[in-house]
Design goal:
heterodimer; A: 196 residues; alpha+beta; 7 strands; rod-shaped; B: 216 residues; mainly beta; six-stranded antiparallel β-barrel; 11% helix
């Protein structure tokens, strides 16, 4: 403005310029993420050449305690707390896919609004418990099979069907158990993780 | 005998204004048929000031000009740069180097050593960048001293060294005094006549040198 303005305009501009200087730190600047440090702060390159590249910029997510990891090239805005050049921050993501998102909460994380009352299954613990249950059932079936074979020899020596049946039951359950345990990981989300 | 001189030439008329914050300037009429340019050594009856011609020309064999304290570089453009984990003196050096100005050795080392975890300078003007930077330290200010260097620090309000003067008028309501001094060395940032000096104006006419001193 000052270079092209006439003298009177230049005087007015000189009067308001200090205010405009602060104003420059009151707007937000579109940036590209160049990198992310271990403490999750960002290295940013603003689109505007009037603003320098800045690193170690903390992210203000708008959700308490949230942590996000993004890939290089992600888009975000750069701002300054209280228009202070010493207090940059990043916020408001653009079209960006997060690599990781963490939402720590001490009491409740509700998906689907306040009516989300169903608990999320803890997959690993449920898997361990179900494996134990299946192993117990297999053990019980094997015991029943042993008992049937033993009783048949004494009380029903001509009966060949029962031992075949119980043995088949044990084998079939064992096969199903193995298939179930093998397939289990595919039932677990590799992206969504929850903490007990 | 002239009350003042500029680069050795007699000053016919002058209005010299020294603020507590920022750069001083002087509007001069000098007995010279050639325009003054570049650095100007201004002397008010022995009180020396070093400045740079901001604008000027010649009218009726008299050089008319405005002089700004320092080397005239504070209005220069400065490019964006980010600083991290540095003392104030680092970005200050960048600003003053860009402006071609000199830091006063009397600057406050405590202010200069203040650590900045981060400081982001956007494109702008050196004077603005300087003001923004100094504002990072509570109470710190900057001004161009009479010797043309840029001082950064905290006010300590020492007593003025000017003791030989005549008090002409006082205006308690306005918080100002008018004096006459052979060598008007009162400067902002000192205490004079009970006033914390915020602004000094020297006016030189054909037959007098008068100094107005304004308090905070």
């Amino acid at each position: 403005v000052s270079e092209n303005a006439d003298r009177m305009k230049a005087v007015v501009y000189a009067l308001v310029r200090p205010l405009l200087t602060r104003q420059k730190y009151s707007v937000m600047y579109a940036c590209t993420v160049l990198g992310q440090a271990a403490n999750l702060t960002l290295a940013l390159k603003p689109d505007s050449k009037a603003v320098p590249s800045v690193d170690q910029v903390p992210i203000w997510h708008g959700i308490p305690g949230a942590k996000v990891k993004v890939a290089n090239g992600a888009r975000v805005l750069l701002g300054f707390h209280n228009s202070d050049p010493a207090r940059p921050y990043a916020a408001l993501w653009g079209q960006t896919t997060a690599v990781e998102i963490h939402f720590p909460a001490s009491t409740l994380v509700s998906l689907g609004g306040e009516n989300g009352t169903h608990p999320v299954i803890l997959g690993d613990q449920l898997r361990t418990a179900q494996n134990a249950l299946n192993s117990a059932l297999l053990t019980a079936l094997a015991a029943v099979n042993s008992y049937a074979v033993a009783v048949k020899a004494i009380a029903d020596p001509t009966n060949v069907a029962t031992p075949v049946l119980t043995t088949a039951l044990v084998t079939a359950f064992g096969t199903a158990k193995t298939a179930y345990e093998t397939a289990w990981p595919s039932y677990l989300s590799t992206i969504v993780k929850v903490k007990q | 005998v002239a009350w003042a001189s500029a680069n050795g030439a007699d000053v016919l008329e002058a209005r010299v204004q020294l603020p507590r914050l920022g750069a001083w300037h002087a509007d001069l009429s000098v007995d010279s048929d050639k325009a003054l340019t570049g650095k100007v050594a201004l002397s008010l009856n022995g009180f020396a000031l070093s400045g740079f011609v901001h604008r000027g020309g010649v009218l009726a064999d008299t050089a008319i000009l405005r002089v700004v304290g320092g080397l005239g570089g504070l209005p220069r453009a400065i490019e964006a740069k980010a600083f991290r984990g540095t003392p104030v003196r680092t970005p200050l050096a960048y600003i003053l180097q860009t402006a071609g100005e000199t830091l006063s050795p009397r600057s406050d080392n405590g202010v200069l050593s203040t650590q900045l975890p981060v400081w982001v300078l956007q494109n702008g003007i050196c004077a603005e960048a300087l003001a923004m930077l100094v504002a990072q330290v509570d109470g710190a200010i900057w001004r161009v001293l009479p010797d043309g260097t840029v001082w950064v620090g905290l006010e300590t309000w020492p007593a003025s060294k000017l003791t030989d003067y005549d008090l002409l008028t006082t205006d308690p309501a306005a918080g100002k005094v008018l004096i006459s001094a052979d060598v008007p060395s009162v400067v902002p940032g000192t205490v004079f006549e009970g006033l914390k000096v915020s602004y000094v104006q020297h006016v030189i006419g054909e037959d007098a040198l008068r100094t107005e001193v304004w308090g905070e």
